Amino acid sequence: MTAFALGCHSCHTTTRNDLKRHAYALANDVQERVVGRPGAIRHVHGPADVATGPRELVVLSIGRDAAPWIDTLIEHHLSLGAKHVFFLDNGSRDDTVARACRHDRVSVFTTDIEFRRYEVGLRRWIVRTFGRDRWS
Question: Are 38 and 62 in contact (CB under 8 A)?
């Protein structure tokens, strides 16, 4: 007899899908450990963290070769009332990092970790590092 835990849709609650979820969770944890290892992400500019109130917004962004848009992205979000922008560059070959570093209220981090392979780990890193207990 096959074990099923029926919910609103049995296809989402089968034992097989539970095993898949567990495998994905383990893979995501591995990605997060790779991204979190010492030296994997380097702090380039701005404060390493910013104190915020419960109603203050911080922007979390990851990009590569974003020089044509980075100034607009930063200025737009700051003009909307964001207190700070945390930007993680993943291997730009243009002047994205230099442009981002020109702005006050922006913290810039860089990494050589391949986004395509470690997307979940990079996203988790920026959210867990700068998005906890605040509006982001």
Answer: no
Element (DSSP H or E) covering residue 118: helix 115-130
Rounded average pLDDT over 114-128:
86
Reduced to 3 states (helix: H, G, I; strand: E, B; else coil), residue 28 is helix
Measure the CA–CA gap between 106 and 50, rounded to whole angstroms. 10
Helices 115-130 and 15-36 sit at what angle, rounded to 10 degrees?
80
Q: Is 88 within 8 Å of 111 (Cβ atoms)?
A: yes
- What's the rounded mean pLDDT across residues 32-60? 85
Type of residue found at 89: D
In this structure, the number of other CB atoms found within 10 A of the CB of residue 104 comes to 8
Using only the alpha carbons of the chain, give its radius of gyration: 19
Q: Which two tokens stand for residue 79?
A: 């003009």
Question: Is pTM beyond 0.70 here?
Answer: yes
Per-residue confidence (pLDDT) for residue 125, from 0 to 100: 87
Q: Which two tokens stand for residue 38?
A: 């010492």
At residue 92, the 3 state secondary structure works out as coil
Query: Do you know the residue count of the chain?
Result: 136
How many of the other CB atoms lie within 10 Å of CB of 82? 17
